[in-house]
Amino acid sequence: MQQVEHTLLPAEWFPQSAVQLTWPHAGTDWAPILDEVIPCFVSIAKEIMKREKLVVVCPDALEVKEQLGVFDEECVRFVELPTNDTWARDHGGISVFDPLGMMVYDFVFNGWGMKFAANKDNLITRNLYQAGVFAEEIQLVNMAPFVLEGGSIESDGQGTLMATAECLLSVNRNEYLQREEIEHYLKDVFGVKRILWIENGYLAGDDTDSHVDTLARFCSEDTIAYVKCEDESDEHYDELLAMEEEIKAFRQENGDPYRLISLPMADEIVWEGERLPATYANFLIMNGAVLLPFYNSPKDEQARKALQMAFPDREVVGINCLPLIKQHGSLHCVTMQYPEGYVR
Fold it and tell me: What sign does the dihedral 206-201-278-79 (CA atoms) show?
């Protein structure tokens, strides 16, 4: 394990012990399209199990075992818990390295600013800890009353955080805190030295108030991948152009500009009269691979080739995520990784 002198929020490309999925079931909003979304979750799960351990949170383990066709719990750990929904990125624990030991931060999850019920999902991380999922030396830290979702922050693993002002400054999360107070808090609890604030950019149909993981991602200490819209008639064009100019102006800690990799704006997808927030930025970095959402579009391959440039030593695997965006999220949103040494 990397030795640090202060608390460190690891980058997603650090070695991992496991990835968490919180499984869809008839008691979630997925109920009308379970037959569509279960195969998507199965595809993600199988790619994870090829490379590291899988933690599945679900109300009925036997049902999920049958869906997965997996009964060997050497590669998968099932934890039966009640859940509201499936967005593990946002209700999952956030791992940090600290001089006092390895920790999992348990922030308040309030359904993206009290938009949706989250009472059960808000308890998942502490319940996983009590169930013995985490290694004995891992410390669980209750971060209440601060509200924070994993999809709202990006770390380069070296002291820089990237986030959107639209999300972290939302009044429905930490309404009594000003930007300076939130920045000071994040620097303190994560040990980061600076925060790159993105002021522009959004996706139609997004419930998260513009989570950064839908728009721009660290791929390495010096590389950022971001969504670029080239269609001037698209409603996102002006906002994403302004976001691109912001990112171009970002500098690494040493003063150098970042290496930038543009990802195509996903084709417009409309369901039940609403444009869905399809994005290629919502990829998962894991041991030896990057799982990339596909949307049954020629742009899928464009996105894969672009991302392969960012991750030349990892296999870029496309997963059909059309079912996921019907509930306004994608691949990164339904996963939460835990670093090496965190999960038994």
Answer: negative
CA distances from 338 to 13, 21, 103, 104, 138 (A): 11, 12, 11, 9, 11
> What per-residue string of b and e applies to 182-215 under the rule 16 or more CB within 10 Å gives b?
bbeebbebbbbeebbbbebbbbebbebbbbbbbb
Residue 2 has pLDDT above 60, yes or no: no
Q: How does DSSP assign 4-55, residue by residue?
A: -SS-B---TTS-EEEEEEE---TTSTTGGGHHHHHHHHHHHHHHHHTTSEEE
73 pLDDT band, cuts 50/70/90, is: confident
Beta bridge partners of 8: 97
Residue 95 is classified by DSSP as: E
pLDDT digit string, tens, across residues 110-151: 999 999 999 999 999 999 999 999 999 999 999 999 999 999
- Phi and psi torsions of 32, nearest 5°: -70, -20
